[in-house]
Amino acid sequence: MSTAEARQAHRPERLSWRIRLRRDRTLLIMTVPTVVLLLVFNYVPLFGIVTAFQYYDPLVGVWHSDWAGLDQFKRLFDDPMFWETLKNTVYLSFVQLILFFPIPIALALLLNTVISERIRNLFQSIVYLPHFFSWVLTITIFQQMLGGAGVLNQFLRNHDIGTWDIMTNPHTFALLVTSQAVWKEAGWGIIVFLAALAAINNEMYEAAAIDGAGRWRRMWHITLPGLRGVIVLMLVLRLGNALSVGFEQFLIQRPAVGHDAADVLDTFSFYYGIATNDYSYGAAAGLFKSAISLLLIWGANKLAHAFGEDGLYRK
Are 223 and 109 in contact (CB under 8 A)? Predict the structure, then answer.
């Protein structure tokens, strides 16, 4: 038998799409709700992008509103408030990227060193819990702890020490929202890194230990290289979502610190678009943010490929 005939003999029989459909019908049925949700909440609303190129009037609808072309974007780029908001958004995104992104990695490494499974599960439960709190509850907790009448300032007053203006100080607002995000989401963010750590072969650690490598050297030469692909992937996703620093979190705290500190692109679209019934202007700001986010994730993915990582997909 020739090599080609041997390959043909060992090649599995290709099933028709009807047979595959009948075989996988249970799994396909299970995916239907997810597909419907994605279509209804993620793809159907994309039709509203057209309002960014109109003088949209909700009374006459999309089909009968006057066409504006790029006029809404010209208004946007001529608006000094928009550029201040964009600068503030980039600044807040940079602060959160530098201060927040490494913390889930550090927590995952810390959990990986805990031998007792009971202690590990307890720690995971504690750090996961704030993820399920709403932003209203999260900010209320911070207000009760750090506000003017909070626990910290009450303690300082009782000991005749000057109080700290934390919740209403626009100059430290970036650190405040970052600390809130860390407290709420860092525990949830370690799930992916823990899964990556579980995929690292334990024999590599045993071999390194036999060769005399200490804990820090094993982490530097085995753990971190094993996490590198996942870290790059999460960084690419984070950069793609960099301009979406949060809506509810900033919307709730905006009256306390002022619009100069708390306005980001999402709140700009709300206050200067939806709240003023200027829907086309708000849609133009949202579309600009989406376009920049797409460019960021594309550039970050290209950079990941340049360093030999997969990024979002293999090259």
Answer: yes
Tell me the pTM. Answer: 0.81
Q: Residues 300, 302, 304, 307: is their CA dihedral positive or negative?
A: negative
Half-sphere exposure in the Cβ direction for 139 (13 Å, CA): 16
> What does the alpha-carbon distance between residue 250 and residue 178 come to, in Å, rounded to a whole number?
11
- What's phi and psi for 2, nearest 5 deg? -75, 170
What is the residue type of 207?
A: A
Identify the residue whose tokens are 């133009």: 284
Residue 202 in tokens = 């334990």
Exposed/middle/buried for 146, CB within 10 Å: 0-12, 13-18, 19+? Answer: middle
Average pLDDT over residues 145-155: 85
Q: Which pair of structure tokens corresponds to residue 218? A: 């094993």
55 forms bridges with which residues in the sheet? 66
What's at 21, amino acid-wise?
L
Element (H, E) at 78: none
| Entry field: residues in the chain | 315
pLDDT digits 0-9 by tens, 90-110 = 999 999 888 888 898 888 888
Rounded CA separation 12/9 (Å): 8
Residue at token pair 């709730």 = 252
Burial class (CB in 10 A: 0-12, 13-18, 19+), 255: exposed
pLDDT digits (tens, 9 = 90+) for 31-86: 999 999 999 988 888 888 888 898 888 888 888 888 888 898 999 999 999 999 99
> pLDDT over 90 for what percent of the chain?
16
